[in-house]
């Protein structure tokens, strides 16, 4: 396991603990501060990856474009609950450019898109959830079934539920003083159809566009020498 991947796993665990501790310590009064701390933390493994390789402007630009695009495409679909083309862009980024790149594009897409849709205490949680989606896509990208559309589709469908289940946690943790198992079950039961919509939308975009997007982005990698190191 590479040094950058070890740091990525350790830091992702640290981010998870930060999200929970921030509720008790900050009482949601500094959610933007938490968001920026998450960005700072996730940049560590990203730059460790390039510790022996000069960072070029092209590498930064392509990830900035992908993060901006992932954020922007979320806005037109905001009126359709849980239909998230943003997830498609994040998954493809992780598959093509690796775990670190998928993580950073996912997290930045969340905070940038919320500039248009509204920032709130949910923002750091969305950053982490989408970051982990991109990170896991990068970690699994060399597994044989991820080479096929059906494998990517299953991955996207499962992450539609994982994303929703993780976002349910911030609601539960923020109301921990009123926690009951009835509340827990009701929150997760109420999210089933939204999570299903997210998962199915991921499958829809992956089936239609994943093959062409992967080919196009791999062509850019070869042409411009972008991020050639494996995650």
Question: Could you explain the architecture of this structure?
Answer:
Helix 3 crosses helix 5 and helix 6 (123-140) packs antiparallel against helix 7 (149-174). The mean pLDDT is 83. This protein has helices at 3-26, 31-48, 57-72, 85-97, 99-117, 123-140, 149-174, 181-190, 192-224. It has 231 residues and is mostly helical. It contains nine helices and no strands. Helix content is 77%, strand content 0%. The N and C termini lie close together (9 Å).
Question: What secondary-structure arrangement, pairings included, does this model have?
Answer:
Blueprint: H1 3-26, H2 31-48, H3 57-72, H4 85-97, H5 99-117, H6 123-140, H7 149-174, H8 181-190, H9 192-224
Helix pairs in contact: 1-2, 1-6, 2-5, 2-6, 3-4, 3-5, 4-5, 4-6, 4-9, 5-6, 6-7, 7-8, 7-9
What distinguishing features does this structure have?
231 residues, mainly alpha, 77% helix
SSE series: HHHHHHHHH
**Straight-line distance between termini:** 9 Å
The largest pleated sheet is described as: none
Sequence stretches where pLDDT stays below 50 over 5 or more residues: none
> With helices defined by DSSP (H or I, 4 residues minimum), what is the helix count?
9
β-strand percent reads under 5%
Over the alpha carbons, how many angstroms does the gyration radius reach? 17 Å
Q: Which class of secondary structure composition applies to the elements? A: mainly alpha
The averaged pLDDT comes out at 83
Q: How helical, in percent, are the residues? A: over 70%
Instruction: Give me the count of strands.
Output: 0
């Amino acid at each position: 396991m590479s040094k950058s991947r070890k740091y990525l796993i350790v830091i992702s665990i640290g981010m998870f603990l930060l999200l929970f501790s921030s509720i008790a310590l900050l009482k949601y009064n500094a959610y933007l501060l938490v968001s920026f701390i998450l960005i700072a933390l996730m940049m560590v493994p990203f730059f460790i990856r390039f510790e022996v390789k000069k960072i070029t402007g092209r590498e930064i630009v392509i990830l900035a474009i992908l993060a901006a695009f992932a954020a922007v495409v979320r806005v037109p679909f905001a009126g359709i609950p849980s239909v998230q083309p943003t997830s498609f862009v994040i998954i493809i980024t992780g598959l093509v450019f690796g775990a670190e790149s998928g993580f950073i594009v996912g997290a930045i897409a969340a905070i940038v898109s919320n500039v248009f849709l509204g920032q709130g205490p949910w923002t750091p949680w969305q950053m982490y959830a989408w970051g982990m989606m991109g990170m896991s896509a990068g970690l699994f990208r060399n597994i044989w079934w991820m080479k096929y559309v059906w494998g990517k589709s299953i991955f996207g469908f499962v992450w539609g539920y994982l994303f929703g289940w993780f976002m349910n946690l911030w609601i539960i943790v923020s109301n921990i003083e009123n926690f009951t198992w009835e509340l827990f079950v009701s929150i997760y039961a109420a999210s089933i159809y939204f999570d299903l919509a997210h998962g199915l939308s991921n499958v829809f975009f992956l089936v239609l566009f994943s093959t062409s997007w992967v080919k196009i982005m791999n062509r850019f990698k070869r042409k411009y020498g972008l991020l050639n190191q494996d995650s």
